[in-house]
Amino acid sequence: MTAGVPGTGIGGLFYLVAAVLLPLRGFIRRLHGGRVSWRLIARKSGLALGVLLGILATGWLLGLLLGPVAISAEGMRGAGNAVHREHANLVRWVALLAGFGTLAAVLSLTQMARLFFRKKKDDI
Amino acid sequence: MQDRLVPVTKTVPVTVIVPAFNEAATLADTILSLQSQSVIPAEIIVVDDGSTDGTGDVARALGVTVIRPPVPTGSKAGAQTFALDRVRTEFTIALDADTTLAPDALERLLPAFDEARVAAACGSVLPRRIKSIWERGRYVEYLFAFTFYKQVQDQYGAPLISSGCFSMYRTEALRSVGGWPARTLAEDMDLTWTFYRRGYAVRFLAGAVCYPLEPHSYGFLRKQLKRWSHGFVQNVRLHWRDLLEIPFLRSAVAVACWDAIVASIVYLMLLPAIALLLGNPYILLGYVIDVPAIVVPVIAGAWPRREVGRALVSVPSFFILRTVNAVFFLEAVWSEVVRNKRLRTYEKGH
Question: How many CB pairs (< 8 A) connect A and B?
């Protein structure tokens, strides 16, 4: 089973980041004398890069499809194309930062909860 | 005269437990797939948990051991644990009565136990029948999860769950935790997390493939999703303190909880609300904006099986299944956490 809504939300980002970091993890494991399957790591990291490329392609495609519609709507209201482009860029960056920001916040909160409850356990 | 080559099949120290309640229609396929493995299990035990459809007779006709609890246990976990006392081998397999195995599944799973601290291992899951919208949705979900998420989890040493439909266990470790716990509706997740808490390791080996029957109708799907979603919430409530001490798993579960609640709300309520409020239907593209994030791993999983076309045709069903998933998870959180109303009835639904 997959908990939640697979693919959506920060879960997708989490596994993407985890897969991209696999070579680094493998390298650290190797330094500590652990066994590492570089073939598997390369496959999973390659898959993550494929997903990333796919996401970029979707953004580009959506821009192509929706850009003219949005620009003509803005144009009718008297706003310039340059202003629209600026807004579109801003929205893109905010969406990206919101995703990674939420992921970072959830992971940080989990770490804090861990430290808090460990301390409580030690106090008892 | 030339000697004829007779394939020698090795018997391995594995006992397979198949819990069954009214599974006469599917059990024979399951047993036959076990009997035609590239390595043969020492014993196959079918636990006939109060069936009335001749399940036991089907199993006996195929020459496997059949046991029947004096009183039906009423749950998969109960039936499996009932059989555990009879196991005399180093390893035990739990296999659902509606699940068949790839011919080399057992052989591919065994090497996971070369490492002494491994208590459980599981493989990939793919629906055996892919016809209805729900089966197609599940097919894509599994291709995605077992090609991407689960393999990343294994690389970090923490598969979220050793799937209940087909998993192998070190019998000694299984006994040390009292068998399959029946305190939640997801006994496989409970067992996996209990193993982690005890310092054991769990592995996922993608090459060991099993084929369960997935829900073909909404009625069966409803029962399954209810069990899974409530089981997940029950396990998080039960194990959350221990999970905090397990690297990667704590993050994976925290992210899953966030997505189960917040992403579900965004998906089901916020997106349509914003689209309505702004009068902009393009906002609804949010429902399919992650198509490439889904499709890339799905193609990667389907490619070696030569099923790319079938997978791509099934992708729309996945988006429908995903929406239904979101509803069930929200309901489970509402019921188990907000109303503190615990679901206890184990409703079978494939």
Answer: 145
